[in-house]
Structure prediction request, 431 residues.
Amino acid sequence: MRRLAVIGTGYVGLVTGSCFADIGNQVICCDIDASKIEKLNQGIIPIYEPGLQEMVVNNQAEGRLAFTTNIAEAVKQSDIIYIAVGTPMSPHGEADLTYIYAAAKSIAEAMQDYKIIVIKSTVPVGTGRSVQMLIAEHTPHPFDMVSNPEFLREGSALKDCMSMERAVIGATHSRAADAIEELHAPFRTLVYRTSLESAEMIKYAANAFLATKISFINEIANLCEETGANVAEVSTGMGLDSRIGSQFLQAGIGYGGSCFPKDTEALRFICSKSGVSSRLINAVIETNAKQRYVVLNKLQHALGNMQGRTIAVLGLAFKPNTDDMRYAPSVDLIPELVARGAHVKAYDPIALDEAKKWIQEDILYTQDMYEAVADADACLILTEWDQVKSMDLARLYSLMRQAVIVDGRNCFSLDEMSSHGFYYSSIGRAV
Ligand code: NAD
Ligand code: UGA
Prediction:
């Protein structure tokens, strides 16, 4: 059992803290957002993540997990301090490290003895060393720095953490690496020990590589449409080669979310700062930016004119099983639809409240998918929620004014849609 403090109780901090508590450690999660901590202390989880509510409440009840705004007290009571604050995109694409340095300073000011300080946030190479210098300037006490990047996905975060495929541990001293490796023992995962710098780079390289797979298959999808091939068959056929792998070859409207867009931009910035070519990453970003407008062109093509038309948008979150709206395609596309004169009715099973903070346009939000599609001239599918994929197609057909579906997530088979009589336009497959 170790005593841990986790600074920053967002997606990563809350999941990390809860999972470490669940395997038997004593964990205090801290945040500067007092309302978030107040809610957590009442057992209210500020984000939607399957299974998280139960895990938090159980571990609180068992006395292994606590929440506070008192970072100094949490640091004093802990041996290992995890930094899990945000590293958002700054206007130039660079990772904004303001929160990292603020957290580091508050740790240094509270330290009274030896600590292991672990950066879990995604940070540019060299950040661990700068944080080490900053902390040393503010405390006489000894400490070691560790980079232990996070690889969880939203929507499957608990599973990704509890059954993690690997833990990457980069440390300034082997005693700190030993401690963090030992902390991971209950996860029975593969531990890969590296330098601080390599661990930081692994995180960006891994995300950029996954983003590259997505942009690659989207480019192939666009080519499939022009040549008569079917991208679903192409990606399955490619993925049967174990050197390629079947994952992250799902063509669609491009990647969104809080990480791939920000991390690919940050990597591009690091390249330009280091004088190294970023041609490939530039292309990945550019392909992704264009991909979300592919569905808009398909919709325009199907309807001719959007003025006065009613469009049902199905799915607002950047992916299923989350309410996260950061860099969600819907945030770009709904204003475009409205600007072209369309009336938008939007449905999402979980993200409606969050979506209202991100979409300023005057649109109608519905809790019921069938209410959204009633009398619509077209349906635009932006998130492949199970609710959308299991829609009653006969009922959909009977409710819509025109049976036009533009699907950015390839939720249905072409045969199924044509047998129901829909005009169905998807990604990388013939209409
Ligand atoms: P988030 O925005 O959800 O949460 C960050 C939290 O840190 C907020 O609650 C904020 O109030 C708090 N905070 C900011 N400054 C603080 C300070 N000085 N002291 C205490 N708390 C402070 O962010 P997130 O999505 O959890 O991401 C955190 C980091 O993890 C980022 O670097 C991100 O790239 C990385 N990451 C995220 C994911 C993901 O799926 N969201 C996955 C892997 C890695
Ligand atoms: C991603 C990575 O998968 C995690 O390993 C990483 O820890 C995290 O970023 C991070 O650094 O924050 P996440 O953004 O939660 O996780 O979700 P993903 O499942 O990776 O999806 C990202 C985006 O890519 C979504 O918009 C999704 O729709 C899209 N995607 C994904 C595709 O378009 N095609 C695919 O085949 C896979």
